[in-house]
Amino acid sequence: MSQRRGAPPRADMLPEIAAAVGFVSGLLRTRGCVSEQQLQVFSGALREALAEHYKHHWFPEKPFKGSGYRCIRINHKMDPIISKVASQIGLSLPQLYQLLPSELTLWVDPYEVSYRIGEDGSICVLYEATAAKPVSSFGMLTCKNQMMLGRTSPSKNYIMTVSS
After folding, report:
1. Cβ neighbours around 16 below 10 Å, total
2. How far separated are the first and last CA of the chain, in Å rounded?
3. 13, burial (CB in 10 Å: exposed 0-12, middle 13-18, buried 19+)
4. 88-115 b/e with 16+ CB inside 10 Å = b?
């Protein structure tokens, strides 16, 4: 992967990408319709696709900057990165709609990966790390926080791990 001059090393996004890939792969695995070999290919291709997609939109010093760009979204319309990678293992769009939730939001940000299934579902944390220096989000209206506006009840945060 090429880097811009002055850009932080891209290795800093690997844990977040691994958490996102593990989560999506785990969703495909639970249905039992995808072989382990297909899942390995899917996981590798999704890791590469996300690293490429995020490489100029990853700001550890400002983790919420670019959050909307890095958001993986299925809202009765398949996320283009997921559909492209799935086609590499022979999964069609109708098959993907059967295997994945019809409403899924996956936020992949520096130091945190979280998801929500359904429009009113709770936001659950998949991965969380502390920044090298404190990052203040006071007053920041992030993509995830915008989606929380207007909720009648606070969401519960859960930590879920997906092992492969």
Report:
1. 25
2. 25
3. buried
4. ebebeeeebeebbeeebbbbbbbbbbbb
The whole-angstrom separation of Cα 3 and Cα 9 is: 8
Residues 6+ apart with CB under 8 A from 41: 88, 89
Local confidence pLDDT in tens for the 164 residues of the chain: 444 444 444 568 999 999 999 999 999 998 878 999 999 999 999 999 999 999 999 999 999 999 999 999 999 899 999 999 999 999 999 999 999 999 999 999 999 999 999 999 999 999 999 876 544 444 444 555 555 554 444 444 445 555 44
- Cβ neighbours of 54 (radius 10 Å): 20
Q: Cβ–Cβ contacts within 10 Å for residue 46, how many?
A: 23
> Counting every residue, how long is the chain?
164
Q: What torsion, rounded to 10 degrees, do the Cα atoms 119, 124, 127, 133 define?
A: 90
Instruction: For domain 13-128, give the CATH number.
Output: 3.90.640.90
pTM of this structure: 0.75
